[in-house]
């Protein structure tokens, strides 16, 4: 099953957190596989919207939001790795608010 599909995920990394936290998040971005940098201020991995495969992130009222277009197993692996690294670096358990993470 290598079908490219869309994925969306909000994490409990809130906009109101201090700059110190957001600086750490920026460092995590750069460590993640596929990092290509900021394009118009938006972090991107693997490609951009016109490409078949890409991930981008934005800070929303609902938390740090990721939008991706890739196959399911690659997405599951990538977002799982991000959550693990963010939990380790930020010092709190990072997950989706819908799953009970505050």
Q: In words, what does this structure look like?
A:
31% of the residues lie in helices and 32% in strands. The chain has 102 residues and is an alpha+beta fold. The protein has one domain. The protein has a 5-stranded antiparallel β-sheet, covered by helices on one side. A hairpin with a 2-residue loop joins strand 4 (54-60) and strand 5 (63-71). Helix 1 packs across helix 2.
Can you give keywords for this protein?
single chain; alpha+beta; 102 residues
Can you summarize this structure?
This protein is α+β, with helices and mostly antiparallel strands and 102 residues long.
Low-confidence stretches: none
**Overall number of strands:** 5
**Principal-axis shape:** globular
N/C terminus separation? 33 Å
List the secondary-structure elements in sequence, H or E.
EHEEEEH
Give the topology, please.
Layout: E1 4-11, H1 19-31, E2 35-39, E3 42-45, E4 54-60, E5 63-71, H2 72-90
Helix pairs in contact: 1-2
């Amino acid at each position: 099953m290598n079908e490219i599909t869309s994925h969306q995920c909000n994490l409990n990394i809130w906009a109101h957190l201090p700059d110190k936290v957001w600086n750490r998040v920026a460092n995590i971005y750069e460590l993640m596989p596929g990092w290509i940098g900021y394009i118009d201020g938006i972090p991107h991995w693997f490609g951009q919207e016109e490409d078949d495969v890409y991930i981008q992130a934005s800070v929303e009222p609902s938390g740090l939001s990721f939008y991706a277009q890739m196959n399911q197993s690659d997405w599951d692996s990538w977002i799982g790795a991000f959550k693990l690294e963010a939990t380790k670096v930020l010092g709190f358990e990072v997950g989706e608010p819908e799953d009970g993470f505050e």
